[in-house]
Amino acid sequence: MNKFFSVKDVPNIGEIVNEALALKAAPNAHEALGKHKMLGLVFLNPSLRTRMSTQKAALNLGMNVIVMNMDKDGWALETQDGVVMNGTTVEHIREAAAVMGEYCDILGLRSFPKLKDREEDYSEDLFNKFMNFCKVPVVSLESATRHPLQSLTDIITITENWSKPGKPKVVLAWAPHVKALPQAVPNSFSEWMCQAQAEGLIDFTVVHPSGYELAEEFTPGANISNNLTESLADADFVYVKNWSSYKEYGQVYPVSENWMLDNEKLALTNDAKVMHCLPVRRDLELASEILDGPNSLVVKEAGNRVWAAQVVLKRMLEELS
Ligand code: CP
């Protein structure tokens, strides 16, 4: 594996999930693999879970880690070619990425979308340039359109929390928010769940109010609905997440019905486990009574971020050595 950007970088979901769960059972079994290897984690945006879990994963593999908060500590980055840099930007991504590639054997990058120009965000221009210029394997720590470490974590969490016969029904449910949020987490969750469905592991539904359709490329084979009550029936896992509109890009439409998951709505499900990538706004996106109750997986899910990161780094290190 020389990049981890989308589900397309993983040949088989079932296999990588089993490998991650084996690492969870024996976290230090491969600590010689990363000896004298350097991981650089480059953040253009804030993070708690991604930052700490990926560092821990690298340390479990014996790697050294450098964290670079470009948004706070780095030079202002120019990403466009052919501009005279006589404004606020100080360093071009061509040099910055190449230099970081000199220091590190593997790099991670977090780069959120601006939510102004859909074509620009969905081109993943900044991420692609970074991957191209740094010349070392790159792990996405969340890009403009996807959050693959989160999605791999989510399928690991679903797998280890499902012990009944047959396939679980997994529902991605839109939730309210006060801000315009990217589509990266739901896009990514959906493309991973669609692939898991294609491998026969789950049944997958996406439910959202009209106007919040995800781009079709992320939902192949998904059951898509605007009816929350119907979709929650028989659900085994409900993945709660807000996102802004893709169609009217970055807009937040008013929604009159109550879409926040609470215990009353949870009672419609098959005693579903509830997931969220975090951070979550309590009693706006998701009711406290669920977050504090027995059906919430959110903390265990965040814990599993380590094993998702560790299996990806392990696969990259195996190709380096
Ligand atoms: N879920 C997630 O990626 O969390 P952070 O933004 O805190 O890293």
Note down, in words, how this protein is organized.
This protein is of the alpha/beta class and 321 residues long. The chain is built from 13 helices and twelve strands. It has a five-stranded parallel beta sheet with strand order 1-7-6-2-3, with helices on both faces. The longest helix has 16 residues, at 305-320. The chain is globular, with a radius of gyration of 20 Å. The mean pLDDT is 97. Phosphoric acid mono(formamide)ester is lined by residues 47-50, 142, 150, 277-278. Pathway: Amino-acid biosynthesis; L-arginine biosynthesis. It holds the Pfam family OTCace. It catalyses: N(2)-succinyl-L-ornithine + carbamoyl phosphate = N(2)-succinyl-L-citrulline + phosphate + H(+).
Question: Poorly predicted ranges (pLDDT <50, ≥5 residues)?
Answer: none
Order of helices and strands: EHEHEHEEHEHHEHEHEEHEHEHHH
Strand order of the largest sheet: 1-7-6-2-3
Largest sheet: 5 strands, parallel
